[in-house]
Each structure stands twice: as structure tokens, then as C-alpha cells.
Amino acid sequence: MTAVVTRFAPSPTGYLHIGGARTALFNWLYARGRGGKFLLRIEDTDRARSTPEASAAILKGMDWLGLDFDGEVISQFDRADRHAEVANELLSKGAAYKCFSTQDEIETFREAARAAGTSTHFQSPWRGADPSSYPDAPYVVRLKSATTGETVIHDEVQGDVRIKNENLDDMVLLRSDGTPVYMLAVVVDDHDMGVTHVIRGDDHLNNAARQIGIYSAMGWDLPVYAHIPLIHGPDGKKLSKRHGALGVEEYQAMGYCSAGMRNYLARLGWSHGDDEFFSDAQAKEWFGTDGIGKSPARFDFKKLENICGQHNAVTDDAALLHEIQLYRQSAGLPALNDVQSQRLKAALYCLKERAKTFPELLDKAHFALIEGPVDVEDKAAKHLDTVSRGILRTLTPQLQNVSWTRDELEAVLNRFAEENGMKFGKLAGPLRAALAGRAATPSVFDMMLVLGRDVSLDRLNQAASKGDS
User: Which residues contact 149 (CB under 8 A, 6 or more apart)?
Assistant: First the structure.
């Protein structure tokens, strides 16, 4: 049985688009779930638009998504000589021909065809010409496409797609300057790389019919095709900037976790029963082209947030802290220092199940990240009136020597509230304001445990003395 080989082949003309990221994910899941290889090819033949920065952005996006690939990155441009070699082999086999028609002649043909209401596919007069009649002039190399019958694309998602060969033109393989065209390069690269399954957007479906002509002319085995529908926005229209972020790196900078992003993208156009939340291991085991739908998937930020929240909740604290640091770097925020990192890691147990994104998590962790005096917000300041500060002054000495455990802290604080004729909620307000400077915070006990005795008491003393002359 042939080992599975898939590939992701982006053009480096910008960021890693969210649609491209899903294509890469599908190829990665298909290969990894079958013990196969997942390869990366940068289709950089368009030298005017391809940039090293865009290639770096693609690699960075894949790294964030955790989509590791096998072997080295393959540059399509670097393989131009091999592409030309195949075109010349097709020439020698009589499966391609030299066409000396000029652009003016081609346009004249098309104008006449439009006027007559016939096909504008150029019919080159050089297709059956005797080589002895060739002029000393620039030429392109064209594939001799079949003119009768039909080409059938056996597609794992779309089913059998039939295209009449009379609707396919003799496409150019080599330009007049000898450089190969994209359509030829893709086929040669996929063949040479041993690609067994081509999983890509359905905007390439028509390309498949023309590419099959090259495979057939060379006598090469066809890959298995699976053309997946594009991603639409919530309004049902093709995903664009007006719907929100398009580049993968933007989602990292917005604070979505990579595991949640993988999970959500996997579910975008593919399903496994009613399963919404799953691990990488489950996705690799379950993923197959039979679960891909034919209709465009709709991107839903709410679903993405919910999935990310579930992954945050089950992620190991050390791994979560590491990704939060990477998020801050991506978002242009200063790195957390050692003290902040230690406190945040200690606080994750009481925060990560309540936050869908990293900005939300870090906002809840505000109390742990404060350095120096606590800046009290207006909403919390009302809890630090004269009476409340007096309560804190009375309470603080009683916390000096207690065992700093949750049970002991709950016992002391509840007993203090009861002895002073108040409900615990009345005591919690001043404590939140003192410890975090906010009215809405995690549990008072969680904050005290994370901060520790010295910092907690220091903040309580500072709050108690506010307003003193």
C-alpha cells in the first residue's frame, strides 16, 4: 500500500490566510492520521509578488498552529529547470508543440470568435505544423489537449466532475522566455514530491482538469483529489476583511489559543458526528475526506471563542503560560517578568476555566500582575470608605499568624465577619479593592493564596491607611 503524502502549497504574497491555514490543517491531519508525510512547498514563481517576508509569515503562522512538516521547505522557483525539462520531454513525445502566434494574432482570433458567438479558446494554427515550417521567432510551448470526449475529475468531496474536452484550450506550458507556468510547475512538483493526495480549495477544481492533461501526457499516476469549499463570513459571502481578521497571525495577536484554533478550523467544513470539542489525537484519528461537506463553511467568532475557552480549561498550566507569553510578544506587549510569570502560573487554576481568550484571562489575572502600590478603580474605591478601612485595620493583625491555607483563611474571615455583625459579602468588597483595586475579581481566597501572606498583608495595610494624613 502506497504511503500517504500530502502537501500545503501557499503563494508567498502576504500573510497566511485563514482559508489557507484550514487547507494546511486538513492536509496535516490526513497525513498524520495515517502515518504519512506532510510536505510544504512555497509557490514563489510570481517573482513580482513573492517576498521573503511573506514566506516568513507563512512559516510563523504554521509554527503557531503547530503544523509541523516533513523535510525542507521546497521552493517552486528553484525547480524551474526541472519544469522546463518536462515541457521539453512533452515536446519530444509529440504531446506538446511550439506556438509562434503573437499576442496580436491571438487577440484577433478572439475578437472574431466573440463576434461569431463561438468559443474564444485559442486554436493555434501551429498545433499540427511541420517543424520545417517553424520561423526564427519567439514561441511558447503548448500542451496538446484532447479535443473530443471528456475529462473526469474523481473528487473525494465533489464527486465525479465532468468537463468536455472541447472546453479546454491548449494551455501554455513554457512562456516565450522559456519560464514555466504555474500549472505545469504544480503537476511536476506534486509528481516529483510523491504527493498521493491533493487536498485544496475548490477554486482549484477547474485547474484539476487541465492538470490531468499533463499527468496523462507524461504517463504519471494521478493523485487523489479532494477540493474543499471555501470559507464564508457569517453573512454567507466569501470571507473578506470586512468580516474581521484574515491572517492567522492576527488571531494569535487577538489572544486565541492555538489548540482551540486547530479544533475550530477542523470543524469548519468537516464533521465527525456531533463532536465539537476534541483533541489533536482525536482529530488525527477521525479526519477523513468523507466528513467534508460540499457547501461553504461559515466563520463564527462566537464558536471560535467557546472552543478556545474549553481548550484553555484543559491545557497544562506550564504550556498555557508559555503560549500566553508568545501571545504578548505577538500583540506587541511587554513580556511578563519572573515574579509576574510565577504568580500567573500559580493563579491559572482559578482563571483558565473562566476565560475564552488570553486578554480576558490576563484581565482576570490583574491582581497577580500588579507591581508596586495597587491603583484602586472608582467602582472599587467606594468599598474603601472610612468604615471599611477601619474594618481592614482590625482584620489585618488577625491574619498575621494564621496558617495560609484556604480552609484556615475561610475560617478566619468568616468568623471575623460574624463577630462584627456582617455578612461575608460586606467584607469581600473592601478585600477585593485592597487586593486587586477592582470591584469584580476572582475569589478573595484565591487571590490571597496566589499572592501569599506577605503581599496580601502589605496590600491590606496599604488600603487600610489610604486617606490617613
Answer: 164, 165
CA distance 170 to 330: 47
Q: CB under 8 Å to 55, separation ≥6 — which residues?
A: 12, 42, 44, 73
Q: Specify whether the CB–CB gap between 68 and 39 falls below 8 A.
A: no
Dump pLDDT digits (tens) for 104-129. 999 999 999 999 988 888 999 999 99
CATH 1.10.10.350 fits 378-465, yes or no: yes
Q: Treating both helix axes as pointing N-terminal to C-terminal, what angle do 424-436 and 406-419 enclose, rounded to 10 degrees?
A: 120
8 A C-beta contact, residue 404 and residue 452: yes
Residues 197-209: tens digit of each pLDDT: 999 999 999 999 9
Nearest Cα residue to 75 out of 104, 50, 93: 50
pLDDT of 234 reads: 86
Residue listed under C-alpha cell 502506497: 2
Rounded Cα–Cα distance for residues 81 and 88 (Å): 11
Do strands 37-42 and 74-75 pair parallel, antiparallel, or not at all (unpaired)?
parallel
Q: How large is the C-alpha radius of gyration of the chain?
A: 32
Fold match, 5-75+231-302 / 78-228: yes
Q: How far is C-alpha 114 from the chain's CA centre?
A: 44
CB 121 within 8 A of CB 127: no
- Pick the range with the lowest mean pLDDT from 82-86, 116-120, 124-128, 317-321: 116-120
Cite the annotated binding site for ATP by residue number: 241
Binding residues: 241
Cβ atoms within 10 Å of 101's Cβ, excluding its own: 17
Domain covering 78-228 in this structure, CATH number: 3.40.50.620
**Catalytic residue annotation:** 241
Name which CATH class applies to 5-75+231-302.
alpha beta
Q: Which residues contact 458 (CB under 8 A, 6 or more apart)?
A: none
Q: Is the pLDDT of residue 271 over 90?
A: yes
CA distance 198 to 240: 25
Q: How many residues does the chain have?
A: 469
Q: What is the pLDDT of residue 265?
A: 97
Output DSSP code: residue 167: G
Residue type, 442: P
Domain boundaries along the sequence of the chain: 5-75+231-302, 78-228, 315-369, 378-465
Residues 113 and 153 sit within 8 Å (Cβ to Cβ): no
Can you give the pTM of this predicted structure? Answer: 0.93
